[in-house]
Amino acid sequence: xxxxxxxxxxxxxxxxxxxxxxxxxxxxxxxxxxxxxxxxxxxxxxxxxxxxxxxxxxxxxxxxxxxxxxxxxxxxxxxxxxxxxxxxxxxxxxxxxxxxxxxxxxxxxxxxxxxxxxxxxxxxxxxxxxxxxxxxxxxxxxxxxxxxxxxxxxxxxxxxxxxxxxxxxxxxxxxxxxxxxxxx
Amino acid sequence: xxxxxxxxxxxxxxxxxxxxxxxxxxxxxxxxxxxxxxxxxxxxxxxxxxxxxxxxxxxxxxxxxxxxxxxxxxxxxxxxxxxxxxxxxxxxxxxxxxxxxxxxxxxxxxxxxxxxxxxxxxxxxxxxxxxxxxxxxxxxxxxxxxxxxxxxxxxxxxxxxxxxxxxxxxxxxxxxxxxxxxxxxxxxxxx
Lengths: 184, 191
What we know:
The complex is a heterodimer of chains A (184) and B (191).
Chain A: H1 5-8, H2 13-20, E1 24-29, E2 36-38, E3 41-43, E4 52-55, H3 56-64, E5 68-71, H4 78-90, H5 101-111, H6 119-140, E6 148-150, H7 156-176
Antiparallel strand pairs in A: 1-4, 1-5, 2-3
Helix pairs in contact in A: 3-5, 4-6
Chain B: H1 2-5, H2 14-36, H3 42-75, H4 77-82, H5 84-87, H6 92-112, E1 144-149, E2 156-157, E3 163-164, E4 171-175, H7 176-185, E5 188-190
Antiparallel strand pairs in B: 1-4, 1-5, 2-3
């Protein structure tokens, strides 16, 4: 068939990772390369030791060939994540994090742990953050009603996680409410 | 990505798609040319590899876009043949395909089941029978979706009568029909 059953209703985490790979990161190249035209735009020229911005997939590719160092984004530091975690556990709302932070941080920690300070500490902080946010997501389910629910600052991976359940819940609620403009 | 999350078929991005395909062709041609050239240096080889990686990435995106559309067209084929509004969102090739697919599907259903049923029930589009779900698949426009506002959106009316104002960067879970216009105008994306 045109689309496998597993992909019909929801996107998979690996697809989200794929999308996140289009984001720009800074690298310090170890080789020089002229400006190269890609389909999504021209990147470069690479001239060590100057920093340049390239898409994440390009950085990962170069990194795995040991041809660059990746500069971790400014939010991916122990101090910043600690602050966020503090915010997360004291406040009710979700704290502000980049929209695709889970994907980007996972890729960077997998591919380039040697370019990041204190990767183990970061990993455990990210895990704590994730658990705190997950718990909030679940308690947020009680607020689902038949027409609208706003979820500020949630990131794409988390949305994907709660999507099946929330959408199902909302559809059922919609069917239960009469005259709400449904065609079911 | 919008196409994957929307229950309805979105307007075809024919110009964009052709553009991307053009780029793809040009890049692959360039790569072919350089590979055959024995004088290319080590450094250029690296660039070729990178360009090829990107070609594969773009191909994947195009693939999944086209597949998603195809799936929706097959699913709603019969509905498309009767709905002129939806037909404007398809390209000519997609429209032909939908009509042909619907015809073949009809013939198949008729040959296997319908012809042996009593005359009054031997049609797919029996609207006079009440309390029966329609046998024609339609896009469910009130399906909830996650919408991410890229710009400030004007307030809209929710089905229960209240209004919703989406500020920039807000994310909200709501019915597709509510945010349909924002998505079409590019003010919001589905995530």
